[in-house]
Amino acid sequence: MAIDDLRFGLVLPTRDFLVRGDTTGYRATFEMADRAEALGYDSVWMGDSLISKPRLEVFSTLGYIAGRTRRLGLGTSIYIPTLREPVQLAYSIASLDLISEGRVTFGIGVGGNDPASVHEYRMVGVDPERRVSRLEESLALLRRLWTEENVSFEGRHFHLENVTVLPRPAQPRGPRLLLSVGNDGQVSPRQARRVVELGDGIFPSRCRPAEFRQAWELVHAEAERRGRDPATLERALYWTVHLDPDRHKAIAEAEAFHLGYYGRLGRWVTEDGPWGPADLLRRLLDAYVEAGVRLFVVRFAAWGDALSQLDRFNEQVWRHYR
Length: 322
Hints:
Layout: E1 7-11, H1 16-20, H2 27-39, E2 43-46, H3 58-68, E3 73-79, H4 86-99, E4 104-108, H5 115-123, H6 131-147, E5 151-154, E6 159-163, E7 176-179, H7 189-198, E8 201-202, H8 209-225, E9 234-243, H9 247-262, H10 267-272, E10 275-276, H11 278-291, E11 295-300, H12 306-316
Parallel strand pairs: 1-2, 1-11, 2-3, 3-4, 4-7, 8-9, 9-10, 9-11
Antiparallel strand pairs: 5-6
């Protein structure tokens, strides 16, 4: 299937070396970034956590990758801005966008409701029950801090007086903000408004093709109602895969990965996949494209084997869509 605007990014293995106790395993992060640029992938992405899911820190890691690459996009999948103070966050992102010459995309979510994620919020003094309104204030402030001088703001969570953040990001409005909505196809009116007014696209991680289509249609309709061109909104999917000709082995490896990563299995593991041979992945990928996805951010569900998975994916899947 040839789609002119179809793009692929790769999630970097910034956590598995800690799970496996491999003190030098972090180097695979940078090897994958180097390969991604050499092979022509659109971007590389990394997740975020303070204490609940230990991994390499986002901005220092992406800053290092920015210095060793030239055109590769740099994304977060998914960053949790509500764990941070927005002035410091705006400053860090602006600096990364500047030194990378405008290559940053900021994928954003509110984190999970599991005990470890709730504990993470409480340990930085944030009430997890108020994180949605805190997220909305943070997003509004990020855009203003990247584009305005002497920003003043009085909200439920933040109070700013005459704040100017320098340097400015390379992108005139700052990095694109992709919101993790549409999981299981569900988008509330508040979420749709948040995407259209404060964000630049949708970025679900757990949905079937029909569910993605439903989520995108809801956001598309909200954009039209509010006078925003839907073509300005990104349609991205965080897509976790395991590629192996033996489907049973692929399922077992994917389940082991998710149990190690999240401590539990969700329906996206036990029901959806995609775990198995290349033709299965390509059929599912085609279905997502038909549903509207234009940016696939691919994570390999494989502890210590992400680079081998990349080799398989590159030769057996991605080459069909270049």
